[in-house]
Amino acid sequence: MKLPFYHSHQSGRNRPRGTPVFLCGLNPADRWLAGSVLLLSLFGVVMVYESSVAIAVRDFSDQFYFIREQLKWLALGLTGLFIGSKLSYRIWHMLAVPFFFATIALLLMVFLPGLGIRAQGAHRWLNFGFFVFQPAEFAKFTTVLYLSAWLRNSESNRFSAFVIYLCMTVGLILLEPDMGTSFVLLLIAISMYFFSGEPIRHLFIFIPIMAIVIIGLAIISPYRLSRVMTFLNLQEDPLGASYQIRQVLVALGSGGWTGVGIGKSRQKYEYLPEANTDSIFAIIAEELGFVGSVCVILVYMVIIWRCFKISIRAPDNFGRLFALGAGIWIACQTIVNLSAMVALIPLTGIPLPFVSYGGSSLIIALTAVGIVLNISTYKS
Question: Is the pTM of this model over 0.90?
Answer without folding.
Answer: no
